[in-house]
Amino acid sequence: MFKMELLRVKKSFIKTLESLKQILPMILGIILLVALFITAVPESFYNSIFVGNKILDPLLGAIIGSIAIGQPITSYIIGGELLDHGVSLIAVVAFILAWVSVGTIQLPAESMVFGKRFAIVRNSTSFVSALIIAILVTLTLSFL
């Protein structure tokens, strides 16, 4: 019985390694593309985009965040810098939420691995959620 379970674990492990071997080039390509995009877009670009409009700012923040995906750990630093440069809180929240949850750049790879429908639904839901949460955060803070 124990040998049979060990054999199943070994087969699963080998299948996992084979899948990882197939996906690894895509993952590396995505990481390089994201790093290039983040490096190519100067910080002053964000300042000129967010003009203080309560409707357009969160929408633009979510769109830009969806394209310029990043890591959650660095989002606090970027959010603080954007706030220090006068970007509205609603735009920063929408930007950061979309930045860490929506992956437009990685959509082709995600579609290939999880299926096109799943990838589109997940990204669309994350985008809309980023806007809703940004509104709710600013409303909540206005009451406090």
Question: Gist?
Answer:
With 144 residues, this protein is mainly alpha-helical. It has helices at 2-40, 43-49, 56-67, 72-84, 89-101, 107-114, 116-143.
Q: Which keywords apply here?
A:
single chain, 144 residues, mainly alpha
Share in helix: over 70%
Residue runs with pLDDT of under 50 for 5 or more positions: none
| β-strand amount | under 5%
Sheet having the most strands? none
Q: Based on DSSP secondary structure assignment, what is the total number of beta strands?
A: 0
Structural domain count = 1
Task: Characterize the overall form.
Answer: elongated
Could you state the order of secondary-structure elements as H and E? HHHHHHH
Radius of gyration from the CA trace?
A: 19 Å
Q: What structural class do you assign from the helix and strand content?
A: mainly alpha
Count of helical regions: 7
Mean pLDDT: 85
Termini gap: 61 Å
Please tell me about this protein's structure:
This protein is an all-alpha fold and 144 residues long. The chain has one domain. Helices cover 83% and strands 0% of the residues. The mean pLDDT is 85.
